[in-house]
C-alpha cells in the first residue's frame, strides 16, 4: 500500500465513556507522491438491526409438507431492519508541515494531523448481539482526483456510566415466590440487593417445597435482548419487536434450602436510565431466574428477579484483613518444608528477588545429569543392538 496511516489516541486503550472526548493525532506516510483533493476524518456511531422472522400470514395460506425446500422456507420469512445514527461528525484535516493550497503529498514525509471529537452524553454503548450491533469508530478518507478514495478505520469502544450508590431501592433485599394452588410445589428466591457491577458475584437464597421425587433446581443468569425493527413488506407487520435470550451462567441444586452465587461477566452492558431506555432500539436486561424441574424436565415453578448493572456498586463490600489470613497463600522456597508461610498477597508487591532454597536447587542438579546419562545409555544400547544384527 502506498499510504500508511496510524491513529495515535491520547490513551493507551480506545475505550471511552459517554460524555468524554476522543482526541489524538493521525499520522500519514507516503511511499510515492500523491495528488489529493482533501483529507477527511469522520467520527461515526450507528446502531444496525437485521433479522429474519417467519411470516404467519403466508404460512396460514400455504400447506407446508415434510419435504419442503429451503427456498419455500425462505419465501415465508420477512426481513426486519432498523438503523439509527448516534453521532456523525466530519472534520477536514489541515497539515502542519505544508500549506493546504498545494494539495500534493510528498513521499518519505510524515504528515501529522490533530483531531478532537466530543462523545454525546446519551450515546448508546458499543454492543454486538445476534439481532444487531452498535459500533463507533474513526474513518480517515483520502480523496484522490482520478482514483478510488483510500479509507482507514480505527474502532472506538463506548461505555455508559451509571452510579448505583445513591439508589435506595436497589440496596434493599428483593424476594419473589411462586406457589401452585393445585399441588404443594413452590419456590422462593431472595437476593440481598438488585444492583451490581460487571464481574461481581450475585448471591441468592432459595427455599423450595415439593412432593415429587427426582426434582432439581436450575438457577440461570440470563441476558434478555429486545430489538425494534421495521419491515418494507406490505403484507407483514410494519413494526416488530424481537426478543432473544442468552444464558450467561447457570447452576443446578437439589430441592433444599440453598445459599450460593453466580458470577457476572466483565463485558456486561451497563444499564441506561429509564428516560433513555424508552427510545432505544436495542435494549439489554439481566435476569436471575430459578426453575423447579421434575425428573421429566418439566417446569413446575419458576421465578425471576431483574438486575440492574452499573459502574458504581450500590453496596460497598469492605474486605477485612482477618478474612485473608489463611485464604491466599504461597510457599517460600527459602524456608524449610515444615515452615510454610501463609501471608496474603497484596496488590503492591515490593521488588524483591526470590531464589530457590539450597536443598531444592541441589536436588534439581542431582536429578538432571542422571536423566541425561539414562537417555544416553538407552540410545547407545539401541544402536549397539542394531549394529550387532547387521553383522
UniProtKB/TrEMBL annotation:
GO annotation, cellular component aspect: cytoplasm
InterPro entries, per database record: Arrestin-like_C, Arrestin-like_N, Arrestin_domain-protein, Ig_E-set
Domain of life: Eukaryota
GO terms (BP aspect): protein transport
Pfam families in the record: Arrestin_N (PF00339)
Residue ranges of every copy of the Arrestin-like N-terminal domain listed in the record: 5-164
Family: Belongs to the arrestin family.
Entry-linked PANTHER family: ARRESTIN C-TERMINAL-LIKE DOMAIN-CONTAINING PROTEIN-RELATED, ARRESTIN DOMAIN CONTAINING PROTEIN
Name of this chain's protein: Arrestin-like N-terminal domain-containing protein
Amino acid at each position: 500500500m502506498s499510504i500508511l496511516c496510524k491513529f495515535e489516541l491520547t490513551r493507551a486503550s480506545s475505550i471511552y465513556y459517554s460524555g468524554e472526548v476522543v482526541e489524538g493525532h493521525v499520522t500519514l506516510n507516503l511511499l510515492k507522491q500523491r495528488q489529493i483533493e482533501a483529507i477527511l476524518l469522520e467520527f461515526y456511531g450507528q446502531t444496525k438491526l437485521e433479522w429474519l422472522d417467519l411470516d404467519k400470514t403466508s404460512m396460514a395460506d400455504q400447506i407446508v409438507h415434510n419435504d419442503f425446500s429451503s427456498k419455500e422456507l425462505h419465501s415465508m420469512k420477512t426481513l426486519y431492519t432498523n438503523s439509527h445514527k448516534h453521532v456523525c461528525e466530519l472534520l477536514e484535516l489541515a497539515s502542519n508541515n505544508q500549506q493546504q493550497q498545494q494539495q500534493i503529498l510528498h513521499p518519505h514525509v510524515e504528515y501529522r494531523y490533530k483531531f478532537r471529537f466530543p462523545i454525546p452524553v446519551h450515546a448508546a454503548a458499543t454492543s454486538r448481539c445476534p439481532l444487531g450491533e452498535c459500533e463507533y469508530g474513526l474513518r480517515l478518507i483520502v480523496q484522490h482526483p482520478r482514483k478510488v478514495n483510500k479509507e482507514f478505520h480505527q474502532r472506538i469502544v463506548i461505555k455508559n456510566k451509571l452510579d448505583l450508590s445513591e439508589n435506595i431501592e436497589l440496596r434493599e433485599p428483593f424476594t419473589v415466590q411462586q406457589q401452585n394452588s393445585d399441588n404443594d410445589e413452590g419456590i422462593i428466591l431472595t437476593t440481598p440487593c438488585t444492583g451490581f457491577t460487571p464481574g461481581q458475584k450475585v448471591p441468592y437464597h432459595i427455599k423450595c417445597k415439593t412432593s415429587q421425587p427426582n426434582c432439581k433446581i436450575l438457577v440461570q443468569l440470563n441476558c434478555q435482548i429486545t430489538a425494534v425493527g421495521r419491515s418494507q413488506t406490505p403484507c407483514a407487520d410494519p413494526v416488530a419487536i424481537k426478543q432473544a435470550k442468552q444464558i450467561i451462567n447457570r447452576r443446578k441444586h437439589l430441592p433444599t434450602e440453598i445459599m450460593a452465587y453466580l458470577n457476572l461477566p466483565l463485558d456486561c452492558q451497563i444499564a441506561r436510565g429509564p428516560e433513555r431506555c424508552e427510545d432505544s432500539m436495542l435494549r439489554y436486561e439481566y435476569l436471575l431466574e430459578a426453575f423447579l424441574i421434575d425428573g421429566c424436565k418439566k417446569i413446575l415453578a419458576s421465578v425471576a428477579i431483574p438486575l440492574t448493572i452499573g459502574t458504581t456498586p450500590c453496596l460497598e463490600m469492605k474486605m477485612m484483613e482477618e478474612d485473608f489470613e489463611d485464604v491466599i497463600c504461597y510457599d517460600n522456597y527459602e524456608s524449610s518444608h515444615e515452615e510454610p508461610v501463609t501471608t496474603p498477597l497484596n496488590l503492591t508487591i515490593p521488588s524483591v528477588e526470590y531464589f530457590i532454597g539450597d536443598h531444592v536447587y541441589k536436588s534439581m542438579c542431582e536429578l538432571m545429569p542422571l536423566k541425561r546419562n539414562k537417555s544416553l545409555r538407552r540410545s547407545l544400547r539401541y544402536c549397539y543392538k542394531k549394529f550387532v544384527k547387521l553383522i
